[in-house]
Amino acid sequence: NFSNFNIIVDGLVIDCKFPDHLRKTYYELCCAQESFLHKDLLKQINLTLAVGVIMETTNIAEGIRACEARASSHEDFVVWKKTLEAFELLGMNVKFLLKRIDGLLSLSARPRDPAEHEGYKEMKLERAHAGAKMKELESRMSSVKDTLKKMDVEMEEMLRRLATAPWYFAED
Hints:
Elements: E1 8-9, E2 12-13, H1 20-33, H2 47-66, H3 74-89, H4 95-108, H5 118-164
Keywords: Coiled coil
Coiled coil: 120-161
């Protein structure tokens, strides 16, 4: 349990170096991973560096928990990833945090402007194509309307001629 939890580096208990909330968060991270995250830190590592690595790992974990993909910047995620990769080289168990950051990076890399989505571009192209087809059809319909108007005029003229024709043609 938390009251029995001690952070030990090179045989030294370093709990006093951590504020209570960070120590508790680090405890929860260790419990979640069923392991002390710092157990494989390089032997004979500078104590101040070890404390800094544990603290910053905990701060990043809190940042991940608190972030909202839209509110947190892509640059923050990149910095966190590079920091954790460096800590991993020092022996800190942070693979689970790196995995979470990779997920956040993939979400934050998605375009937020609808104009940047591939589907949107395709639909816009289809709409433009449909617009061109509509103009072509409207042009054809206009041509057909013009032809029908000419035919109406010709029919009216033929009806007028027939109606006003001399009677002698009617017997033939």
